[in-house]
Amino acid sequence: MSKQLLLQCIVALTVWTAWTGPATAQERVAVVNAASFEPGFPLSPGCWATAFGDFESVGVLDTVADSVPFPTTLGGVQVFVNGAAAPMNFVGRTQINFLVPADTPTTGKVPFRVAVAGNTTYEGSISMWPISPGLISVNPADPTRPGAVLNQDGTVNSPANPARRGEVVQVFGVGADFAELPPDGAPAPTDRLIPTSTLPRVWISVLEARVQFSGLAPNLVNAWQLNVFVPDEPFVNGQVPVLADVRGVKTNLVSIWVAE
After folding, report:
1. Which terminus has fewer CB within 10 Å in the chain: N or C?
2. How far, rounded to the nearest angstrom, does the alpha carbon of residue 170 sit from its chain's CA centroid?
3. For 134-259, which CATH class?
4. What string of pLDDT tens digits covers the 260 residues of the chain?
């Protein structure tokens, strides 16, 4: 996988899994954090989310947004959160990836609606919380969930291209407590860094790792970037887990490859 393909994965947040739920979107839509896929886990303002369902039955075809700011109508599909139109970067036969609008209330349930060609195909609600941190995997179908990670030299972390102990890796996710957010669907600025409000804790293998930076990834839309030092211990070797904690809320596990 090239660096550009990894960045496209972060931008698109597309999922390579099949939906096995009920027959129509009207019967049921499952909405989850687009990185962690944790069922029943609240979403947060500015977080990427994924709605799973059988959208093909209501005429949806796979469509990817090809420019930013991301649109609030894509392939004839609209998503509304608390009545506000949500930007989307992908709509497909079994999933829709959308950005929770930044002004969405942070606690309790809010209305959620999907419309196709102006007609409502699903109405329900989603739970909200101030933060909903999740780490992105480049292959969610893999039980080890290899992370969307760049090595210190900017190359993609992989079994054939591991990180080195003592170096800094960039780990990507969504849903952290950013100090500010760009306009809905717009990329983060490139002329300045927007940090998270608090510095998260990160573990690589069983060790807490030093965090160099936590904030919005420049020029990407609401992507969380963590610059973290790989612990320089001999047993941190091979494929090891990565976990972050934001204000007491833990992310899902992903993994990276490390060598001496």
Report:
1. C
2. 14
3. mainly beta
4. 555 556 555 655 554 443 344 334 444 799 999 999 888 889 999 999 999 998 988 888 899 998 999 999 999 999 999 999 999 999 999 999 999 999 999 989 999 999 999 999 999 999 999 999 999 998 888 899 999 999 999 999 999 999 999 999 999 999 999 999 999 999 999 999 999 999 999 999 999 999 999 999 999 999 999 999 999 999 999 999 999 999 999 999 999 999 98
Domain topology for 3-128: Immunoglobulin-like (2.60.40)
- The backbone torsions φ and ψ at residue 208, rounded to the nearest 5 degrees and listed phi first, read -75, 130
Distances (CA, A) of 183 to 79, 91, 153, 168, 188: 17, 21, 31, 30, 9
- Distance in angstroms (rounded) separating the CA atoms of residues 180 and 205: 31
> Where do the domains of the chain lie?
3-128, 134-259
What distance in Å separates the CA atoms of residue 58 and residue 51, rounded to the nearest whole number? 14
